[in-house]
Recover the amino acids of this structure.
């Protein structure tokens, strides 16, 4: 059995955001090439992604929004909801393939064919709200995967850890009233970075108070601050929740070379964070951990951090 799965595909390069947009097709290409050049692809179970059935989207996005997204692509409307979310005629199918790849990785883990997986998909998803595209995101991949784990695999408790430098607002809003999904986001202080949410006091609603955990970090934070937050706050909280599966929104835009934020993480910190999450998955979740790509806008830093992320998965 391969220890780790990888979702890689040229299809993810077909979501064309046009000139001068940060979320470019070359993101997926840079990671795909690095996985092959480094030999990691040879050591992994390669998962050839297929488009998801649109029905799996329904627990997260209502049909009228999904139809509006599909129509915007078919009609070449240019963008949906905001110019930061451009679309081309293939964007809807590529988004379905992003979800499909993630769910295939989840299936492989649940079936015991792998312990963990990294899904180098695009477009990203964690900013997508139920009825609105935001922040380069159209369909909330990680939220759909969490709902799928419960509906198709019968799991009762799922944890989502989001270490993208931007707060995962769409994921939080999907689950902030759900006591059976633990959502944790570590991100740059929302006073200084998009989307302006993810304050410490946002800790869930109703019966789910305490199952949302936001850990905002000051601009300029580096490895030491992140590692302290992981060891003292995040890992204990996720461990206490005792999830049956850990999902990770893996954004690499907190890297010190990334142009869109002001956190100063090294490549090795991504290895360290991943290693600690993999260790935790072995303690509480039968090694079940699947991550999906979110942000990362310096191609060299992105490829380096993604390689470190997968190396930590394989060594865990």
């Amino acid at each position: 059995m391969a220890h780790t799965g990888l979702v890689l595909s040229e299809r993810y390069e077909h979501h064309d955001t046009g000139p001068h947009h940060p979320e470019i097709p070359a993101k997926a290409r840079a990671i795909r090439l690095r996985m092959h050049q480094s030999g990691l692809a040879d050591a992994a179970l390669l998962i050839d992604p297929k488009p998801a059935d649109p029905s799996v989207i329904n627990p997260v996005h209502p049909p009228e929004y999904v139809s509006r997204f599909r129509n915007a692509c078919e009609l070449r409307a240019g963008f949906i909801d905001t110019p930061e979310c451009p679309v081309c005629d293939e964007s809807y199918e590529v988004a379905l393939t992003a979800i499909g790849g993630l769910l295939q990785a989840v299936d492989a883990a649940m079936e015991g064919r792998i312990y963990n997986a990294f899904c180098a998909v695009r477009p990203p998803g964690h900013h997508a709200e139920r009825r609105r595209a935001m922040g380069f995101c159209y369909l909330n991949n990680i939220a759909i995967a969490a709902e799928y784990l419960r509906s198709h695999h019968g799991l009762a408790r799922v944890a989502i850890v989001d270490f993208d430098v931007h707060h995962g607002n769409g994921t939080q809003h999907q689950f902030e009233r759900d006591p059976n999904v633990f959502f944790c986001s570590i991100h740059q202080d929302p006073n200084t970075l998009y989307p302006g949410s993810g304050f410490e006091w946002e800790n869930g609603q109703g019966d789910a108070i305490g199952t949302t955990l936001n850990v905002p970090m000051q601009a300029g934070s580096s490895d030491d601050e992140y590692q302290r937050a992981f060891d003292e706050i995040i890992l204990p909280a996720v461990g206490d929740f005792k999830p049956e599966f850990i999902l990770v929104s893996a954004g690499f835009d907190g890297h010190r070379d990334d142009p869109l934020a002001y956190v100063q993480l090294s490549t090795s910190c991504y290895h360290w964070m991943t290693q600690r999450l993999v260790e935790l998955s072995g303690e509480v979740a039968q090694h079940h951990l699947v991550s999906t790509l979110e942000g990362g806008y310096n191609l060299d830093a992105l490829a380096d951090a993604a390689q470190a992320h997968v190396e930590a998965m394989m060594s865990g």
